[in-house]
Amino acid sequence: MPSRKIIITCAVTGSIHTPTMSPHLPVTPDEIAEQAVAAAEAGAAILHLHARDPKDGRPSADPADFMAFLPRIKQACDAVVNITTGGSAQMTLDERLAAPLKAAPEMCSLNMGSMNFGTFPLQRRYSEWKHGWEPGFLEASKNAVFKNTFRDIESVLDRLGDGCGTRFEFECYDIGHIQTVAFYLAEGLIKPPIFLQFVLGVLGGIDAAPEQLLHMKATADRLLGDAYQFSVLAAGRHQMPLGTMSVILGGNVRVGLEDSLTIGQGELATSNAQQVGKIRRIIEELGYEAAKPGEVRESLALKGGDRVAF
């Protein structure tokens, strides 16, 4: 029986999908808190969190919107809270960092390069919208760059890493992003243990194919050696197959309604917990166990939930 524990991350709401796309996408603080806690109870050890404007569900960088659910999640479960620093490609870096700097969480995401980040094709699937902002928000991604320069990355490492004791989920959307992690490891600005999130299937990044996952892992092995662990986030219908492949290759897995709205072909997931439950069953069928939050804190050298500011 394999002894390795698998880290399940659940990305609860994100900033890609809009309310029209699924009635199950959490947008209010109550919905985000309830779905996050349920995902933790289903087996997610890390909760990756964005905020939304509770009035119309648009992505929000307002710290008040985060603080409306963060304390509730902390009080209700022991999962590691991981706050986005990516937010949305249409936010400035200072906007994206406002909530993490206030909350000083155990973990944050950190995007490792600037890129085109195209969500505009999703607009073609719908003719009627729940809110007027949705089609324009998607269309804007056609002429926007998701800005994560070297200076931006260094700023996040300094202000959140050194300043708040936060550690990172390094999001790598393409091969060059892994090279950037390796550069900052050599510079001493990133310190092991490193937790990489391979992101496959975003338009503008590497595509969601098994060959690409193998390529990303081989690159990380060559550049980072034994200084890292990895997880896989695959968009849409690729979520479960490539997440399963990650486990087989020695990695971890991220699921959640940020990354995919479905639980099977043509079937909307009714909750984040449903996706967590499915990947947990797959992990256990393969002979592994889901890691508990305490095991993740030890494995990733996190500061502990008692040292956050919420």
UniProtKB/TrEMBL annotation:
<dbReference type="Pfam" id="PF05853">
    <property type="entry name" value="BKACE"/>
</dbReference>
<dbReference type="InterPro" id="IPR036206">
    <property type="entry name" value="ThiamineP_synth_sf"/>
</dbReference>
<keyword id="KW-0862">Zinc</keyword>
<dbReference type="GO" id="GO:0046872">
    <property type="term" value="F:metal ion binding"/>
</dbReference>
<dbReference type="InterPro" id="IPR008567">
    <property type="entry name" value="BKACE"/>
</dbReference>
<dbReference type="InterPro" id="IPR013785">
    <property type="entry name" value="Aldolase_TIM"/>
</dbReference>
<keyword id="KW-0479">Metal-binding</keyword>
<protein>
    <submittedName>
        <fullName>3-keto-5-aminohexanoate cleavage protein</fullName>
    </submittedName>
</protein>
<keyword id="KW-0808">Transferase</keyword>
<dbReference type="GO" id="GO:0043720">
    <property type="term" value="F:3-keto-5-aminohexanoate cleavage activity"/>
</dbReference>
